[in-house]
Backbone:
């Protein structure tokens, strides 16, 4: 057996929202993300229920260096945790979102977003090894704002505002 030393990076982002986990969890779904992420696009390949569930499969192509990727819901515990395995030609990603209600029984939820990204070939390894923490933090900060806005208003941010926010966060 040949062993390769593929590159791997782990990234994590934490956020807190004024809503119970039971309200936030359903939004972490390839179908429901259309409600609150203005630029979200996916192709739903398989779901029995019509929304996220264990074994749900969908495809994304964000037009970035990673190309098209297929996602599979690998863990599904409503109100607590959802996890995905996301694979494309260049990388595989284990992606999980853990939700924890505030211990004081207030309507606060602590979310931990964690990505473990592994290159699948030399080109993927180069991309995984390249600096990317700032872009990840900027993307997650914009996502945090989109989720906060949706939870407060029931509406998605405008495309223009979301794009401006992402540029602003990327600039530092």
Residues:
């Amino acid at each position: 057996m040949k062993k390769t030393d593929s590159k791997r990076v782990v990234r994590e982002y934490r956020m807190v929202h004024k809503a119970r986990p039971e309200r936030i969890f359903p939004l972490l779904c390839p179908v429901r993300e259309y409600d609150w992420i203005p630029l979200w696009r996916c192709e739903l390949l398989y779901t029995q229920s019509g929304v996220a569930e264990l074994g749900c499969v969908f495809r994304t192509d964000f037009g970035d260096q990673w190309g098209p990727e297929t996602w599979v819901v690998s863990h599904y515990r409503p109100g607590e945790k959802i996890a995905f395995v996301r694979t494309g030609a260049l990388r595989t990603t284990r992606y999980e979102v853990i939700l924890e209600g505030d211990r004081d029984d207030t309507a606060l939820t602590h979310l931990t977003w964690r990505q473990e990204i592994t290159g699948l070939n030399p080109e993927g390894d180069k991309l995984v090894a390249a600096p990317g923490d700032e872009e990840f933090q900027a993307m997650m900060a914009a996502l945090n704002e989109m989720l906060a806005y949706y939870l407060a208003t029931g509406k998605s941010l405008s495309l223009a505002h979301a794009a401006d926010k992402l540029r602003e966060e990327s600039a530092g």
The helical segments are 21-24, 33-36, 122-129, 133-153, 159-171. The chain is about 30% helix and 35% strand.
